[in-house]
């Protein structure tokens, strides 16, 4: 088994973005991202902080806008409108989840599709389905970059996506389909899930259930991408889920932080069968923010008519 190193691929993506940002600076253009955080979700705070810091390190302009947990839909709509009209803002990111009193769909639809760096607006979803990859959700776009970096063959491959979320599963399936994979989307109601997944050359696990995909789901030699991010909080689980060689470091992390991260894939059993596996952490995670930077750059160029970047999708 070889590791799909997302940290490495994210570095390659960031370098490419930084180089183009420098070129644009010569033309007086500085791509800008506004990241909006509503409320006090600790994980969201970490993500937004990391997004803004990455912008700074690559030479992009960024703003972090923090609003109180009791913000109303109307108030957030007014902010989105203001950001839609601000010239120095190319990308608008509304960190999810939003507090329950806010109508998230209305907010996401209010974002100017040209500034929708998450690719969540219906216009961008529609374009994606039609095979035009304009602004594509960051996590699945990052997975494609990683598969392409490692030259994993997609055309003709049997791909199984486990999970049907709007953020990962559905756009992931479209991106793979456009690269000529044969795509199956599975979910919680799929009958005999292990048997369906065992048909796959390429497995994308995006269900949000710790270590659910075991070796029993994996055909010998399959490529496995683990999009999950779950917390393991007991030593017994650590011993059950991880290979022996990792126990000491995982248990030390557990003692220090109270948890250690596991994906949707059980490394212990899947490592024995997969040809490639993306680790957690260090697999898909770092790609999401790198792709967000790329989307912000892309939005800045598209808004200025600097040519449509070459479509990611080979059209047949
Ligand atoms: N929350 C979890 N994932 C994401 C994402 O990709 N974008 C935004 N905006 N919020 C998220």
Characterization of this structure:
The chain has 316 residues and is of the alpha/beta class. It has helices at 6-26, 42-58, 73-85, 104-110, 122-129, 138-149, 169-178, 193-197, 235-241, 247-257, 267-270, 285-303; strands spanning 2-3, 32-38, 61-67, 91-94, 158-162, 182-186, 202-205, 223-226, 230-232, 260-262, 276-277. The protein has a six-stranded parallel sheet with strand order 1-11-8-7-5-6. Strands 3-2-4 form a three-stranded parallel sheet, sandwiched between helices. The chain has a two-stranded antiparallel sheet with strand order 9-10. Helix 1 (6-26) runs parallel beside helix 12 (285-303), helix 3 (73-85) packs parallel to helix 4 (104-110) and helix 6 (138-149) packs across helix 7 (169-178). Guanine is lined by residues 93-96, 118, 138-139, 167, 288.
Low-confidence parts, pLDDT < 50 over ≥5 residues?
A: none
Structural class: alpha/beta
> What is bound: which ligands?
guanine
SSE order: EHEHEHEHHHEHEHEEEHHEHEH
Q: Please compute the radius of gyration using only Cα atoms.
A: 20 Å
Strand arrangement within the widest β-sheet reads 1-11-8-7-5-6
User: How many β-strands, per DSSP?
Assistant: 11
Main pleated-sheet profile: 6 strands, parallel
